[in-house]
């Protein structure tokens, strides 16, 4: 029985579950995201630390010319060093500072006037789209696969 328990812990089965609580919409100019990481477990576990990131998934082009890139816009490490008992829930608040990355078309669009129109047309022609995600990963001492959660947010 002991071997099976150790094996399950290594794979994260019955281990720590991570749930992100973040607002659905965030002001672009705020530069910070406030949220909470909720940790639960079915067995005694030790959390080393928690990493929270804001990621931008940026796509351009259409069909065969479609390209995707991922940018890290901000990251914060929340110190852990605590244990969670079975059935316990631990809420860990975080403040994640971020900086947006702008494409050339975005820069033109913000200028307004004729250049702003060119920027809008450029974004449309290139089929530029951005999706934003908050990602949290808990580093659990005994787990080979660290648990994580990812939530999409809208930047307005």
Describe what this molecule looks like in 3D.
With 156 residues, the protein is α+β, with helices and mostly antiparallel strands. Helices cover 21% and strands 51% of the residues. It has three helices and eight strands. It has helices spanning 2-11, 104-111, 113-126; strands at residues 17-21, 25-26, 32-40, 45-60, 67-84, 89-97, 129-140, 148-155. It has a five-stranded mixed sheet, with no helix packed on it. The N and C termini lie far apart (52 Å).
Q: Tell me, what's the shape? A: elongated
Strand % is over 45%
Regions with pLDDT < 50 over 5+ consecutive residues? none
Number of strands: 8
Q: Mean pLDDT across all residues, rounded? A: 77
Discrete helix count: 3
Give the class from helix and strand content and strand pairing. alpha+beta
With strands numbered from the N-terminus, the spatial order across the biggest sheet is: 2-8-7-4-5
Q: Major sheet, described briefly?
A: 5 strands, mixed
Give me the strand/helix succession: HEEEEEEHHEE
Indicate the percent of residues in helices.
10-25%
Please report the distance between the alpha carbons of the first and last residues. 52 Å
Q: What is the gyration radius calculated from CA atoms? A: 20 Å
Write the layout of secondary structure elements.
Layout: H1 2-11, E1 17-21, E2 25-26, E3 32-40, E4 45-60, E5 67-84, E6 89-97, H2 104-111, H3 113-126, E7 129-140, E8 148-155
Parallel strand pairs: 2-8
Antiparallel strand pairs: 1-3, 3-6, 4-5, 4-7, 7-8
């Amino acid at each position: 029985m002991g071997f099976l328990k150790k094996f399950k812990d290594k794979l994260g089965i019955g281990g720590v579950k991570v749930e992100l609580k973040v607002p659905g919409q965030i002001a672009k100019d705020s530069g910070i995201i406030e949220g909470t990481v909720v940790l639960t477990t079915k067995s005694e576990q030790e959390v080393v630390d928690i990493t929270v990131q804001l990621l931008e998934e940026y796509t351009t082009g259409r069909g065969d010319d479609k390209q995707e890139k991922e940018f890290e816009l901000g990251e914060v490490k929340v110190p852990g060093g605590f244990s969670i008992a079975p059935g316990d829930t631990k809420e860990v608040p975080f403040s994640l500072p971020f900086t947006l990355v702008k494409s050339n078309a975005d820069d033109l669009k913000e200028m307004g006037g004729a250049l702003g129109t060119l920027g809008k047309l450029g974004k449309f022609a290139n089929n530029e789209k951005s999706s934003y995600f908050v990602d949290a990963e808990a580093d659990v001492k005994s787990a080979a696969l660290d648990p994580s959660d990812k939530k999409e947010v809208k930047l307005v």
